[in-house]
């Protein structure tokens, strides 16, 4: 009788806790949006108060004035982008990695476009509006103005980052190479901004403006130093993670088991991921993101990895006792996002790893959780999911085979029924559930479309993709 009463009680507490955290996260998202637009309005006001609108009356001064405005907005957005990349926990938890990645890409491309416009317009304006004099003016500005050589170097780094962020370019790069190149964005921002802090009219127009820019620059630099460097090193030293065993799950998938000191202090939740560096092997300096495939119990961790590149393939040969450096935990695909009593879990391929951890770690009563598992050949964790079905009342639906169409999330093994009809049949109350989804980006997008057609509110859909 006690066990029968305690399970729903734990479930209710989990939902109440998730609802409370959801409200807090919504407040953080609102505050972040307000902060972003407040900053943009402030820099626009300083530009206007400094004669920006008045200078539009003449051709050359107008070019310079618009160039100053684009530079101000670009600088503000560039620092915002650095903050988005800094893994600040309150932002990470409120937005989640997928949403942060979308915002980061949008802010980054906008900032880059405005920065290019700034360089062109300022140079053209300083050349008195004469196109033929622009190259010589650019040379003079670069060599004679304080900080301009640094700005040129920073701009080149940003060109490199943006160029390798284009989807066609990313497809030609290994993840490890792309990640390493992407870190040059920090160096680009650090080099591109000082010339404005030292000489920019709107940066020096008033003590308030000066304080704003130096504070924003300091916050961005400090966030990167603390959350991307100091905290990961401190956590890695404190917890002393080491590999205890490597178990082959299939021909191209292995699970790595790890242990360490006081792992409960990591505050990891089911469904989250870490950035991992396995020491003592080639390429250990490059971090790789792998999700937990088992609910953390405070004593050990497990990740399950498919061989998709050099680093993931080499994990099969990692030795017992290998020391590990970690960054994280990251991601919102966790109990933190939960606001409903019932849940539906969708996993495809190796995307089942965080879903399997959620199936174990979430609180739910028998029949309140359903897992839809799409796989091509053999399902991962079949025996473990069978145990969860027997002991926890998890309902597991297998969807075998390749995707039957590019816009379908169902496997080829199921014919004669469309995605929407199948989902309504299997989970008729989907709109009353929290839905967690992980898998390849095209498959996830198919699930998103179908769940939206069923009537699932967007705030109840929690997604993580394996794209970069």
TrEMBL record:
The entry's keywords: 2Fe-2S, FAD, Flavoprotein, Iron, Iron-sulfur, Membrane, Metal-binding, Oxidoreductase, Transmembrane, Transmembrane helix
A single cellular component GO annotation: membrane
GO molecular function list: 2 iron, 2 sulfur cluster binding; flavin adenine dinucleotide binding; metal ion binding; oxidoreductase activity
Cofactor or coenzyme needed: FAD
Membrane topology, record value: Multi-pass membrane protein
Database matches in PROSITE patterns: FAD_FR
InterPro entries given in the database record: FAD-bd_FR_type, Fe3_Rdtase_TM_dom, FNR_nucleotide-bd, MRET, Riboflavin_synthase-like_b-brl
Residues in FAD-binding FR-type domain copies: 236-336
Principal cellular location given in the protein's record: membrane
Localization annotation: Membrane
Transmembrane segments: 26-47, 67-86, 106-127, 147-169, 181-199, 211-231
Coiled coil location: none
Designated name of the protein: Oxidoreductase
